[in-house]
Amino acid sequence: MKKAIVLIYILPFFCSLFAQKTDSVPTPAIFSGVITATNNGVSLIPSFSLGKPALLFDLSLGKGRLSFDPMLRFGMDGKPWAFVFWWRYKLLTNPKFNLSIGAHPSVVFRTVNTSTNGVGKELLAAQRYVAWEAAPTFVLSKKISVGLYYLGSHGLTKDLIQSTTFLTLRSTFSNLNLSKQLTLTLIPQVYFLKMDERQGTYLNATLILGKKNFPLAISSIVSQAIDTEIAGKELVWNLGLNYNFYEKYVRRP
What we know:
With about 250 residues, this protein is mainly beta. It has one domain (about 1-20, about 25-250): Nucleoside-specific channel-forming protein, Tsx-like (Outer membrane phospholipase (ompla), Chain C, Beta Barrel). The protein has one helix and twelve strands; from the N terminus they run αββββββββββββ. The protein has one helix at about 1-20, and strands at about 30-40, 55-65, 65-75, 80-95, 95-115, 120-140, 145-155, 165-175, 180-195, 200-210, 215-230, 235-250. Strands 1-2-3-4-5-6-7-8-9-10-11-12 form a twelve-stranded antiparallel beta barrel. It starts with a helix and ends with a strand.
């Protein structure tokens, strides 16, 4: 696993060598993201779910094919839930097929009850992981795509899940017109999850209802276990209010 950890830290530098442009046209830097307030912090990996109101920051800072995509999760009480620091690189980009790879270090926070001299108190424990991903996507039209997504991760201490495999088949129906102003994005997927010796299969769908040229949207995630040995609720769902932003920066000569 030491090699995997080293790869996560050198990946952005390695990929940046291939991301350089040979022409004189400046490549814009992109800063974008979604900030979500939700009634239920849901994770596709059941043991990572918060299970109570949460505030999510999904950010992206990129230039060319390389991007840094931090995911910062907090409970509404201000306590950190999870920090994930993705580095992603687009290996292939064309009108019909895209392939991206990525890796990250992450920290998941858990509340631990302890007792000192008979006095109970809560401590925040940090659980550290490393992970890697691959995402091939076939583009069927401007609004429809299908693809696979693979995620592998490893716990960095012996008290954590040592090996996680996540594999999903998903499709994306984006910006479907409900009216002249309203659009709907639907992302259904079926996925297989294995954590050490336990495994399960699940159905999941994400819905986003938005208004054209307006930064706010309403989202919902619904996840249903089909057959699983992994602890967690069989049916989870949430509602969220999303704020979207997108900024482009070009260095002037």
